[in-house]
Design a protein that fits this description.
Blueprint: E1 5-16, E2 19-31, E3 36-40, H1 47-54, E4 62-67, E5 70-71, H2 77-87, E6 88-92, H3 103-113, H4 118-132, H5 147-159, E7 165-169, H6 177-193, E8 198-201, H7 205-208, E9 213-218, E10 221-227, H8 233-247
Parallel strand pairs: 3-8, 3-9, 6-7, 7-8
Antiparallel strand pairs: 1-2, 1-4, 4-5, 9-10
Length: 255
């Protein structure tokens, strides 16, 4: 389904009349259903701002963002809150889990708040725990498990409600190499098995090599795009590194 999510001539400015910063400069692109898209760029390129606009955390200065037929730039704050709850999932660098809840309780919290039936909650939770291979820690608390396990729990919490878009902001930033690789393989599984549509902001070429397509930002504009297609991840990684070497972006060797 082409145009599942459409970003149309989006601009974002910060500051006042005397000191204006253009964070996003007339950016347009589409994300199809089931795509795994990466956003890369040097510090200050606008990638986190773009994620925040898609996440409804921030509002555009100009332009439009469509999720299907819904233009989120026209929604009220209350409508945005409902849209966010029903359509978006989030995975952050620092997990954002509730320490007083078990791994299982963290995952099903969103379903509980939506007044789902017990049968629906149990079925959805079992599917996620199995897919993410964290059923053996379901009764543990976040402080009792590793960083990688916390982040897989965060993925489960984000996906249990089958959101329209999963947004990940530097999700491997706090993980060691092995845990990062496991998490990225988890994203791949979510993308393939649950047909999750994922947009991941990252500075790390190794992480980006798991994506199917990468948008490169510089000075608030998309200046390059790479599509993996049938290439191996190793070949795709080298292409990413080649682009980053031209832009001063952070580099990462394969782990």
């Amino acid at each position: 389904m082409s145009g599942y999510i459409r970003i149309c001539e989006v601009e974002k400015y910060y500051g006042n009349a005397n000191n204006v910063t253009k964070a996003i400069d007339r950016v347009s692109f589409e994300v199809d259903r089931g795509e795994f898209v990466g956003v890369m760029g040097p510090s200050g390129s606008g990638k986190t701002t773009l994620l925040n606009l898609l996440a409804t955390i921030d509002r555009v200065t100009a332009g439009h963002i469509y999720y299907g037929d819904t233009d989120i730039t026209e929604l009220s704050e209350d409508a945005l809150s409902e849209f966010r709850k029903d359509n978006l999932g989030f995975v952050f660098q620092d997990y954002n889990l509730l320490d007083t809840l078990t791994i299982e309780e963290n995952i099903v919290l969103a379903l509980t708040l939506q007044a789902k039936s017990r049968e629906e909650i149990v079925e959805a939770c079992e599917q996620i725990l199995s897919l993410l291979q964290i059923g053996d820690i379901r009764d543990k608390f976040p402080y009792q498990v590793s960083g990688g396990q916390k982040q897989r729990c965060a993925c489960g919490r984000a996906m249990v409600n089958h959101p329209r878009l999963l947004l990940a902001d530097e999700p491997t930033g706090a993980l060691d190499s092995r845990s990062a690789q496991t998490l990225l393989e988890t994203f791949t599984d979510l993308n393939r098995q649950m047909e999750a549509t994922i947009l991941m902001v990252t500075h790390d070429a190794f992480s980006a090599s798991y994506c199917g397509r990468i948008l490169f930002l510089q000075d608030g504009k998309i200046f390059h795009e790479l599509v993996r297609g049938t290439k191996s991840r190793r070949v795709f990684l080298q292409e990413i590194l080649d682009v980053l070497s031209l832009t001063g972006g952070a580099l990462s060797d394969e782990r």
